[in-house]
Amino acid sequence: MTPEQNSKIASLTTPVQKTYSLKNAEDLDPLMERIGDARCVMLGEASHGTHEYYTWRTAISKRLIEEKGFSFIAVEGDWPDCYRLNRYIKCYADQNKKSHQLLQNFRRWPTWMWANWEVDALMNWLKVYNTGKAANKRVGFYGLDVYSLWESMEALVNYLQANDPKAAELAKQAIRCFEPYGEDGQEYARAQYSLESSCRQEVINLLAEIRKKTPVYDHDPEAALNTEQNAHVAVNAEAYYTNMVGFNDNTWNLRDTHMMETLQRLMTFHSPGAKAIVWEHNTHIGDARYTDMKRHGMFNTGQLAREQFGESETVLVGFGSYLGTVIAGKQWGATMEVMPVPAAREGSVEERMHRKYGENRLLIFDGNNDRYNEVMPHRAIGVVYNPLHEKYGNYVPTILSSRYDAFLYIDKTTALHSLHIKPDGNLVPETYPFNF
């Protein structure tokens, strides 16, 4: 047999290499091929304060928008704040301002998650991309999270007073019900724990009235969507806070259900052929069925997306790194700090990749990769972080090749560049397990 024949046989029997060097946006070609015609691409992060996670997600998002016609980016952020950015990048409002000025509206701790220069660069790019395009061709930017009860109620009152006086009265009734708790989610949660009066019926009545009146709000391209979404936030946030005191799995599931319902609402609004890019922590976008979350009866948006959109329509992309620096706080509400991220612990996903590659890599999982199909510790850093606790926490048992469809490994990372905005509010959300 000739050497050429031997080489041909070897190429047919040897598994195709599914790891790739990762140095620039052109190196994302294998990921673009893996995504194909999928309608929902979820981009994770292993912390909320790492520069490279934001810049690589931006690089992926730009290619998805330019090459595959994706409709919007939806993020793990509050609806009212993100909606202001959405209107800015679509040239509807605040054209006399700069995007970094609008990012200063992100006042709730941890402000650095969205009030940072990396997001500012993305907003500038999106605004330029949208300029001159028809309204239905402009790419949007939306928040999926559930925490903005008071901000959403305020936005509703301001809008409804001018456009729907009856609904505005219901919104004011709801606000009056919440007033004794001083915009403090924990105070409201404690009141429910001690069986004091609830505001649930007020927000349900408001949502019902708004859903009846949706056609009234169609004078603005997205007014109906914004009004109804703020009402959904009020209803779901009230339920979230009611369950918040005394951590239970239901708070996590309530939050991720809200985020998935919001994503579905956005897909419907943007037409049957809409395509969504989602930015959330790995703990939200990585399929929970392939972590220890499943054992606790918990699910997440990545799992729900695969189940509701279908696996062929959904691509989950995880991120991780070996060592570096990160922005976080030592406790909830603490001053943000640039902290060291120590070398990943032995036997973890990140330590194995460092030992094998020692450089940035893109991994594509196609069901035939057996290197990462066993349970391994996978690092997850939240907004509350202490590097000294690495040995005991911050790792989620994970079957990597099932939890994600692809994975970006960054060997060494650096901290996010915050706008250094002083936060307001003292809500401490219940999350699993380190404030994701």
TrEMBL record:
InterPro entries: Emycin_Estase, Hydrolase/PRTase-associated, UCP036794_erythomycin. CDD domains: Ere-like. PANTHER family: ESTERASE, PUTATIVE (AFU_ORTHOLOGUE AFUA_1G05850)-RELATED. This is Erythromycin esterase family protein. The lineage of its organism: Bacteria, Pseudomonadati, Bacteroidota, Sphingobacteriia, Sphingobacteriales.
